[in-house]
């Protein structure tokens, strides 16, 4: 080991960071990769994994984990504690395996936003009843194109996508917890002119953003609330009345330096009951072509309260006992503990905004997100320190009141620069304190090199005992931003489709209008230059092994999989036409394309289904126009 490297390893993390040139806001802790985790040698790192709980071949995991697929715009399903990837659910992306973004059914879900080829999926959250996961829906946002999607967890398919008007960049997303998930709460992060049609381009004073509530069943935007500053992360309480959001840009700055002028920013708290009453009373306006009720929640409004907290806060998390909102400091080494039972007094103006803060423990450099074990302890990621801090909430409150008490229970090195973390069942009443997932933004030296673009690192930590134990590293791709864990018994996915599923209801209605019975008919319906080809599939054969069209025809192929055996999926791929799709047992799927080139064009099953799978083919014969 070189003398220089040995000297670096002998430095404490804080001493090194505070005395290096990389401690500026934009580069702190990144340039050299010298979080304390980087000091572990490979033998120590391997030893850390020896306590991993093995899930043997053929055994099932205890938990489902749903990971945001980041820049891929998808959701990934993992088993925990094995950390095996079980499935990928396409949401805002085009997926040639399943045909999402290609099939007619998925393009109807995408709607007008099908024109976007990218997504930036951040925060997956599962619907609740009485503060407990009900396994019905998972919701996730697209920051890149200002959308919110819903996934049906029975079929693991995206069934609704909503584009949110009047705002840009949906970031923070959480759900109403009680009495059930009536609303999906979604923060628009970046202020824009109101209305954003070319006016006020050079006048940031007239830029605003909004807090948005989306009806979880209809997926229509129910109402929007204009706020001061910007909005970052959000969470809801266990009464159904309050939702809180962090603001890191109270200055409404247009540049990095502008966003850091104020010594404090704030948490804005929304009174959902007051907002609903204002909407019912007609105390709102609409903007532009959107018919969504827009309410004024800027300072002085009866709909909101602004609680000052240290500058540039980021994460906002609700403790599972329903007592506290935790706002994470980012540029402050602290987190702010807000007592939810004091919020009614705050809205009655009986206390000052800072009186709602009952604790502000100092945890380390760069606190971003906090999760909980259900035993009174909180776990906060420290981005710059590359650590997770375990701390006790009650002790932190006692320390804030002046007692001499050590509220920090442990700090664990993670690798490297952690963002979100998530403990099992932590966003529900049932937080069980078994597992903690830390999603690290950098992996540096943890895996075999794969070129300049490194994988990121999801780490699994055992929190069932008094000490946190790192048990697993998992390389992952394209900035998986956040995750959520629920017990396996809280989810009941379908094994095969039901024939009356609403996902393909419009395709079924089209067949009925054509006089076609999807389960039995193999036929071609011609309507001018529109041709609809209906066929069944049962391993290893399509119901039609050839059909004939004319050059320039718009062809819609509709396939119904008659197999009833689970896991017997068929596919349809038309060669040289950019067409492929999945048809799982008892599913109907359809795709539309133009037969623009005369000749013979083969189609084949692209999901292995049978010993004679390679022979499951057919021909499209295209006559010259």
From TrEMBL:
Entry-linked PROSITE patterns: TAT
Binding site for Cu cation A2: 605, 607, 609, 613
UniProt region (COX2-like), positions on chain: 529-625
Cofactor note (record): Binds 2 calcium ions per subunit.
Residues annotated as binding Cu cation Z4: 481
Residues the record lists as binding Cu cation Z1: 314, 369
Location in the cell: Cell envelope; Periplasm
Catalyzed reaction equations: N2 + 2 Fe(III)-[cytochrome c] + H2O = nitrous oxide + 2 Fe(II)-[cytochrome c] + 2 H(+)
Residues involved in Cu cation Z2 binding: 122, 171
Domain EfeO-type cupredoxin-like: 540-622
Key words, A-Z: Calcium, Copper, Membrane, Metal-binding, Oxidoreductase, Periplasm, Signal, Transmembrane, Transmembrane helix
Coiled-coil residues: none
Annotated residues for binding of Cu cation A1: 570, 605, 609, 616
A GO MF term: nitrous-oxide reductase activity
Residues bound to Cu cation Z3: 123, 420
Co-factor requirement: Ca(2+); Cu cation
Superkingdom field: Bacteria
Post-translational modification: Predicted to be exported by the Tat system. The position of the signal peptide cleavage has not been experimentally proven.
Pfam families assigned to the protein according to its UniProt record, in alphabetical order: Cupredoxin_1, nos_propeller, nos_propeller_2
Entry's EC annotation: 1.7.2.4
Entry's transmembrane regions: 21-40
Known function: Nitrous-oxide reductase is part of a bacterial respiratory system which is activated under anaerobic conditions in the presence of nitrate or nitrous oxide.
Subunit structure and binding partners: Homodimer.
Family, similarity comment: Belongs to the NosZ family. In the C-terminal section; belongs to the cytochrome c oxidase subunit 2 family.
Name this protein carries in UniProt: Nitrous-oxide reductase
Gene it is expressed from: nosZ
